Amino acid sequence: MVLVSGSGTNLQALIDARNTPSLPNTEIVLVVSNRKAAYGLTRAANAIPPIPTACLSLQPFLKNNPGKTRDDYDIEIAKIVLNKKPDVVVLAGWMHVLGDGFLEAMTNDNPPEPAISRTPVINLHPALPGAFNGTNAIRRAYDAFQRGEITRSGVMVHRVVKEVDLGEPIVVREVMMKEGESFEEFEARMHETEWQVIVEATAKVLDQVRPAGE
């Protein structure tokens, strides 16, 4: 299962890699977005065969459920996820920090129904471990290079924990900075690296959770 908020280029990399040597015997059971206008939902619908989608936005959820909180929203997202019983949940440009309720549902033995436990959740982040945690990591890395503070950045996929972008790295790939390169050129190289890393990390986690022989 894949969670997205925007254009879905990383989702597209996973779609294209399905049932290839890079990601064998793999089905994306659902694409979830927290934004109705996210083009990632269109990518899923246009896939062959089409991938089911779901959308639940925070503010409409709170408006339609007086008394509910952001934590309730996160638990509702968890219920949508768990209903499909995925082997792994991939946050591929999901721009909403999931709270304790979601993570507890994924890792506890008694999550919200239907019962399922210890579903790994992984996140793509365009920075090296411990560097530029949080939002706008690509721009912040580029600006740091312009100031002479760094010579390289990178992309990682890590396990999701309560602390933002501090979970155990699964795959890390360095991207060297280039003198005279525009931000747009650097950003494009970072995105190309993201597409490789997200497929590699997803395959690695699936190998860990699937029974031998699948």
Summarize the structure in words.
With 214 residues, the protein is of the alpha/beta class. It has a single domain, classed as 3-Layer(aba) Sandwich (Rossmann fold), CATH 3.40.50. 39% of the residues lie in helices and 15% in strands. The chain contains 7 helices and 7 strands. The protein has a 7-stranded mixed β-sheet. β1, α1 (9-17) and β2 form a beta-alpha-beta unit. α1 (9-17) crosses α7. The longest helix is centred in the last third of the chain and has 27 residues, at 183-209. The protein is globular, with a radius of gyration of 17 Å. The chain starts with a strand and ends in a 5-residue tail after the last helix.
SSE inventory with pairings:
Blueprint: E1 2-4, H1 9-17, E2 31-33, H2 39-46, E3 53-55, H3 58-64, H4 70-83, E4 89-91, H5 100-107, E5 121-125, H6 137-146, E6 152-159, E7 169-176, H7 183-209
Parallel strand pairs: 1-2, 1-4, 2-3, 4-5
Antiparallel strand pairs: 5-6, 6-7
Helix pairs in contact: 1-7, 4-5
Descriptive tags:
single chain; 214 residues; alpha/beta; Rossmann fold; 7-stranded mixed β-sheet; 39% helix; globular
Instruction: Please write the string of helix (H) and strand (E) elements.
Output: EHEHEHHEHEHEEH
Q: Could you give me the name of the CATH homologous superfamily?
A: Formyl transferase, N-terminal domain
List how many beta strands DSSP finds.
Answer: 7
- Any low-confidence stretches, pLDDT <50, length ≥5? 109-117
Please report which band the strand proportion falls in: under 5%, 5-15%, 15-25%, 25-35%, 35-45% or over 45%: 15-25%
How far from one another are the termini?
A: 18 Å
Taking all Cα atoms into account, the compactness measure Rg is 17 Å
